[in-house]
Amino acid sequence: MTGEIALQSPKKRRRLDDLGLGNDAIEPTIQHYTNDGIITSLTQELERLDSRRVTVLISRSRALADKGRLTDAVSDALKAIKYGPTLAEGYLAAGEIYCIQGKQKEAVDVYECGLRTVLPSDWSILYERRKSATERMNRKIDFVANLPFEVTEAIFAQLQDHDHKQYIDCANTSRLWRSVVLYQCPMLWRTITVSKSSLYHRDSAARLLSSVGRHVQHLGLNDVPDRFIRTLLTLVEEKKVASVTELTLDQLVFSHLTDLSLMIMPEETQAAASILLQCPMLERADLCAALVAGPTSLYDICNSLILHDNVRILKFEGFESNTAGADFERLFTHYASSQSCKVQQISIIKCESWQVCESFLEPLACITTLRNIEVRGSFSYTERDSFALCVQRLKALPNLRSLAFEDMTCIRNEVLVRLVQIDGLESLELVDIYELSTKLVYILADNVSPTLKVCKIEKSYVTKEAMAYLESKLKGP
Question: 272 vs 239, 258, 286, 298, 348, CA distance in Å?
């Protein structure tokens, strides 16, 4: 009776209420049992509550997994293990979700923890699940061999390997990886910078570019040896590096450059001029304008070439602008007046200006170091007197050996006769000259200089007999 009175006291009842057990379901238990019996009964009730909580947590964990919320699902499964450490359901649920996430090692650890805790009656299923997870953990799956190329490329791109060392390591993994990384993942090789301090050094950079060069769009060269420059030019000629749209070079690259060939877009004339300024040892410049892109100015380029006294060979092709004749005039006037000028050959091919031709022909004929002059398809409509004056000055050039003119009009017959009479001239080429006729060829043949060995006439209305007569005169008596 003392126990019943004590249990029915307000203080005890408030304690039971705080525990959430002061309800009608357990009221009879409180009233009819002693303290020992109450403890046993409440312990059993708590175990039943934990069991129901585990069931609820596992159910919610599976629902979350079905929704793709795997992190939350794992959290509920681990809580279920906490509330029911001797129940296999929590371990099975957590291990299953880890397997879905691809975390086979974590799944194996969960199953092994369960085997140490749960009742022997549940060991068999945990053993089976652990064995399956272990097999998956030890299985080697090559994602490169199984995924589409674009997915593989996106995975490799996540490395964000700016110096490409990791990409090369991946390529060295196996033949399959090498084939995929080097040849089927162009996005990885869009930008490459080669320098002595980078991974690419000496022959390794050349070998890499020979494999991935067709993918490279942005190429940077910093302090690379001359041998690599020559190798790079060979790769360009072989079209193994053919997609570069942007080239970044430091000044050291140009310090020993002697030969330079540039294809210049209209908007890139200042960039081309800047490159020329960085080539103090330049001896040969082959400059070609991209005709399909529209008129390209020579102003900046000629200003840069004026600063070069080492240049020996100059070739201009495809430049068209209102001031092309004036730009050439400024450049050739400088060479004609420079005592250190070394220019020996000038070729002007398919260049046009809407100014008269004499603006550059006269100073061109005053460059005393010239040996070869070639003007093809350029400034076709010349002034008669201007070209006559040019030829007169050409006769005074001491080193002139070769002349070639193509597609030119308004040339008087007596001027053509003066051409074949230039002392020291060894080769003359006249192509598509409107004024040339059979009668004129006979006149030229009778007036050729003794030094002239070759006189090539094409695309003119001249008979074979006249050409044969000219050839006989060139061979001498």
Answer: 22, 15, 12, 10, 18
Q: Are 73 and 95 in contact (CB under 8 A)?
A: no
Residue whose entry in the numeric block shows the structure tokens 């009842």? 13
- Give whole-number Cα distances, 442 to 314, 388, 406, 417, in Å: 34, 21, 20, 11
> Are the C-beta atoms of residues 470 and 445 closer than 8 Å to each other?
yes
If you write DSSP's letter for every residue of 450-477 in order, what string do you get?
A: TT--EEEEESSB--HHHHHHHHHHHT--
Separation between Cα atoms, residue 177 and residue 171, nearest integer Å = 5
Length of the chain: 477
Give the C-alpha separation, 98 to 75, whole Å: 11
**The overall pTM is greater than 0.90:** no
Measured distance CA(331)–CA(276) in Å, rounded? 14
* Chain segment 350-393, per-residue pLDDT in tens: 887 655 455 677 788 889 999 999 988 765 555 556 777 788 88
Collect all residues with Cβ–Cβ distance below 8 Å to 110 and sequence separation of at least 6: 81, 91, 94, 95, 98
